[in-house]
Design goal:
The protein is an alpha+beta fold and 638 residues long. It has 20 helices and 23 strands. The strands form five sheets. Strands 1-2-3-4-5 form a five-stranded antiparallel sheet. The longest helix has 38 residues.
């Protein structure tokens, strides 16, 4: 009885050993057939010994065998170390392969119809950052094949294929991008590749994110990928070029820049300023596009710009250079980042530069549009004698020498009648660095506005006009005429202090320092000084100027000397029908009047509403009318 029981126990142990050996043999055979197919590069056999899932993912491309080599799946003598039954049709088998006994983990599935065990996946033990991790071959092969498909799509430039390899915001931007821009971008990203067998990607995986580095003939491509719904998709790509230096730091960002440029050009050519405001930097829009006539500066259509362009990026700035009708156009783009984390950065056009004369002359749209606007604004302000606007639209030098010295009451008397005729039209604009010359026609008279850049703004620095007997510079003419007219006003108001300040040393010694009020002569000198300008000569080298006002019957010649870097009145030669000689010195006449009336001169108060007149005492009305009208009270400024 005991012998019988002992025999039964031995038989059970032997049977269990045989069954285990048979099971191990089945798994080993399935694994060895799979490994042999890899070793022989037999894709057909490999698919036969793999599940449908593994074949569709890891073996979907003819180049799959090349990528399996990249993974360096060990082959050779296989020893089963451990078997774990997960279900009747699913096992996990740990094996040691080759002399180094590399450990692999196989997922095996049983084919229901044949009962054959085949490979569903395998995991390779790899070192990564001092850690041993098991990586799925299916997942790695899917990533590597996706990289191949990504490169192939970008090399061919097929829009649908490119979009199929991307996801997220990257895909959204590419979908909106003009086909011409996408084709050019894809060509730049793809570059020149070597033979496919030499392309050995290096993938760094972390859960559902991967960074893949792919060697290229001229450098390397770095693809950022993300696993979504079981599929790897590119979220960005960069290219580093070691030969030509044409790097692509981020295709995603370049696509966003190109989309911003495309949208800007579309809005510009449609003359849609609401859309332009969206795609332009605020300062550029407000200081140029908002009031500019876009028709005078045509820009290329998007499809034309996409065929021939160059994009240069440096930090947060980029320059997009293209051509239209043989002329170069540069769009400057700036990256604007939001303080909010959830709001992505955006790209806006901050300036457009037009290059003419084979690149020797460059014009910005800001200069072009603002030069037209500022010239017209200045012309209107001059016609209206609006000192506030004239000061605002002029350079500090023009304002300091002219507008800030004008007495508001005298603004209407400024000698600018010839250059304020109705009918303002711009003929031509020429740019030369910080100086812009705007040629216009005012009535029938040609003028040239000289504009200079000051603190980023174009301002009127002078107006040039060809008038007989005058300097070409309106600024020089007005600088002296304002001095003369102010002098007339000070005499009329008997402001001895101001007269002293604007007279020469000789004039002061002979007259103004010796009187408390203006001596009375037989000539109405203030009225004569306010006469119409006849001629003006200025000799800067010798430091004197001569101004003729009025005519031979009624007028004066003003002699000015340069004293302490400014012109002051040295004498006034009166021309009047009342005297036999041609000219009488006002300085001499005032001196004689002082001698004739020693002591305090007779006070003659003239209300501000009255006018200077050369009529005799008998001819003067009870309430005389003041002439010139410039002595009236100024109008209230708007």
């Amino acid at each position: 009885m005991m012998l019988k029981n002992g025999f039964s126990l031995v038989s059970g142990i032997l049977l269990l050993t045989l069954m285990t050996g048979c099971a191990s043999l089945v798994e080993t055979q399935a694994i060895e057939q799979f490994a042999k197919a890899i070793e022989n590069e037999d894709l057909k056999t490999l698919k036969h010994h793999s599940t449908m899932k593994f074949s569709k993912v890891a073996l979907r491309n003819p180049s799959s065998m090349d990528d399996l080599k990249i993974l360096k799946i060990p082959t050779g003598e296989t020893t089963v170390v451990e078997i774990k039954d997960l279900s009747d049709n699913h096992k996990q088998v740990v094996v040691e392969v080759g002399k180094n006994k590399k450990k692999l983990l196989y997922d095996l599935k049983k084919v229901t119809k044949t009962g054959e065990w085949i490979v569903d996946d395998l995991y390779i033990n790899q070192k990564q950052k001092n850690l041993n991790v098991m990586k799925s071959v299916t997942e790695q092969m899917d990533l590597l094949l996706t990289v191949r498909e990504f490169v192939a799509a970008w090399e061919t430039g097929n829009r649908d294929d490119i979009l199929a390899t991307t996801d997220g915001e990257f895909k959204e931007v590419l979908e909106e991008l003009h086909p011409g821009f996408l084709a050019k971008l894809s060509k730049k990203v793809a570059g020149e590749s070597g033979k496919s067998k030499k392309q050995r990607p290096d993938a760094q995986l972390d859960k559902d994110i991967a960074i893949v580095t792919l060697p290229r003939r001229s450098g390397e491509m770095i693809i950022s990928m993300k696993l979504k719904e079981g599929k790897w998709k590119a979220t960005d790509v960069a290219v580093e070029s070691k030969t030509d230096g044409k790097h692509v730091n981020s295709a995603h960002k370049q696509a966003k820049m190109l989309l911003a440029i495309s949208n800007f050009l579309d809005a510009y050519n449609k003359n849609n300023k609401d859309e332009l405001k969206t795609y332009s930097a605020s300062q550029f829009y407000r200081g140029s596009l908002d009031f500019g006539d876009l028709s005078i500066a045509p820009l290329p259509e998007t499809h034309a710009a996409a065929t021939d362009y160059e994009l240069k990026i440096e930090g947060n700035l980029a320059n997009f250079v293209t051509h239209i009708q043989g002329k170069m156009v540069n769009l400057s783009v700036i990256k604007v980042e939001s303080d909010e984390i959830d709001i992505p950065e955006k790209y806006l056009v901050e300036e457009v530069t037009l290059f003419q004369d084979q690149g020797n002359q460059q014009i910005t749209l800001t200069s072009l549009f603002s030069s037209r606007a500022i010239a017209q604004l200045f012309s209107e302000a001059l016609s209206n004698r609006d000192l506030t606007i004239l000061d605002f639209s002029s350079t500090p030098d023009f304002s300091a020498r002219v507008w800030k010295k004008v007495i508001p009451k005298l603004a209407a008397q400024l000698p600018v009648q010839e250059i304020t005729e109705s009918g303002f039209s711009i003929l031509d604009i020429k740019f030369n660095g910080a100086v812009t010359k705007v040629s216009v026609r005012q009535g029938n008279l040609p003028l040239t506005y000289i504009l200079r850049e000051h603190l980023g703004k174009l301002l009127v620095d002078d107006v040039q006009v060809d008038l007989k007997g005058r300097p070409a510079s309106v600024k020089e003419t007005l600088e002296l005429m304002v001095q003369v007219q102010n002098y007339a006003y000070y005499m009329h108001e008997e402001n001895i202090g101001k007269l002293q300040r604007h007279s020469s040393r000789d004039f002061n010694e002979l007259v103004w320092r010796q009187v408390g009020q203006v001596p009375q002569t037989q000539y109405e000198i203030p009225e004569l000084l306010m006469s119409k300008l006849t001629s003006l000569e200025r000799n800067e080298n010798e430091g004197f100027a001569r101004i003729q006002v009025g005519d031979k019957h009624q007028g004066a010649t003003v002699i000015l000397k340069k004293q302490y870097d400014q012109y002051v009145i040295d004498d006034i030669m009166v021309n009047s029908d009342k005297v036999a000689s041609s000219y009488v010195s006002a300085k001499k006449e005032l001196r004689l009047a002082m001698a004739a009336t020693p002591g305090t001169l007779k006070q003659t108060t003239v209300p501000a509403a009255f006018t200077i007149s050369n009529m005799t005492e008998e001819e003067k009305p009870q309430v005389p009318v003041i002439e010139p009208a410039a002595f009236d009270l100024p109008q209230e400024e708007p």
